[in-house]
Structures are given as C-alpha cells and as structure tokens.
Amino acid sequence: DQARTIRIPVHMIETINKLVRISRQLVQELGREPTCEEIAKKMDMPVSKVRKIIKIAQEPISLETPIGEEEDSHLGDFIEDKILPSPPETVIHQSLREHIDEALKTLTDREARVLKMRFGLGDGNEHTLEEVGQQFKVTRERIRQIEAKA
C-alpha cells in the first residue's frame, strides 16, 4: 500500500507506475513531454483510460499550502467562492434594492404590499395573482388591476 491521502487499489498503483515509467521513457526518446495519445499507443490502451489514470494519479493538495515568496498566503485564499456574490454584485444588488424601496414609497400601502407579494420582494417568495387575491380578500383580476396601476 502507498501512503496517500486517498487510497488507490494496488492494481491501479501498478498501472500508474507503468504509465510514469513509459512517460519518462518517451520524454527521453522525444525530447519533450509525450501526449496522452503517444502514451496510450505505447501502453496499448485507449486514450480515455490513459487520461483517467493520469487524473487518478494526481495527488490532492491542501488549501493551507503556503503560497508566495514570504509564504504569508495560502492556496485557499486564491480560490473563488462561487456561492458568495462578488463585491460588485453586492453593490449592484444593494443599489437596486434602494431604488426599489424608493419606488415603492411612491405607491399606496396596498399597491406596495401587492407588488412585494407578487415579486417576492419581502420574503423572496413570489405569489400568484390567486394567492395575493386570497390574502387581500379580492379577486385575482382586482390584484392584476392593482398591479397594473402600480
């Protein structure tokens, strides 16, 4: 067994070692890094399998790995968080929110409440004309009229 963060079966370790050995041999012969196609031909296996083996052979790296000359930064500091909005998106969202609030202040209380429910401005949940109508005890047509007037 190899000491790795993620355990790889023995037969796959042997295949990885063979791939590394052939890759080094091809570097010597070609004077450059071999392509996956060249390795696949030499190993007598499909290119897709060679790519898969290369992917499996990659060692995981810690997000705490020091980066830079002073090593005062970590790898994780440079990886974008796809979940959190970017600073420009946050500013745009806040500005839009302020403009919407200003526009809603020009409406009657009822019109503002109807629009907030219809477009999910308060709780993030959009409601149908029917749902808003039930809340205000009026028909969905009346809600549509209020929405259109606003």
Essential attributes:
mainly alpha; Arc Repressor Mutant, subunit A; 59% helix; 2 domains; 7 helices; 150 residues; 2 strands
> What's the order of the H and E elements?
HHHEEHHHH
Radius of gyration equals 30 Å
Please give the domain count. 2
Q: Kindly state the mean pLDDT as a whole number? A: 89
Q: CATH top level of the largest domain? A: Mainly Alpha
- The oligomeric state of the chains shown is single chain
Low-confidence segments, given as residue ranges, are none
Q: Count of DSSP helices?
A: 7
Strand elements, count:
2
CATH architecture descriptor of the largest domain? Orthogonal Bundle
Tell me the overall shape. Answer: elongated
Which bin fits the share of residues in helices?
55-70%
CATH topology of the largest domain: Arc Repressor Mutant, subunit A
Physical arrangement of strands within the biggest beta sheet: 1-2
Beta-strand percent range? under 5%
Q: What's the main sheet like?
A: 2 strands, antiparallel
Cα end-to-end separation: 71 Å
CATH superfamily caption of the largest domain: Winged helix-like DNA-binding domain superfamily/Winged helix DNA-binding domain
Topology of helices and strands:
Layout: H1 10-30, H2 36-43, H3 47-57, E1 66-67, E2 73-74, H4 87-105, H5 109-119, H6 129-136, H7 140-149
Antiparallel strand pairs: 1-2
Helix pairs in contact: 1-2, 1-3, 2-3, 5-7, 6-7
Summarize the structure.
The protein is mainly α and 150 residues long. Helices cover 59% and strands 3% of the residues. The protein contains seven helices and two strands; from the N terminus they run H-H-H-E-E-H-H-H-H.
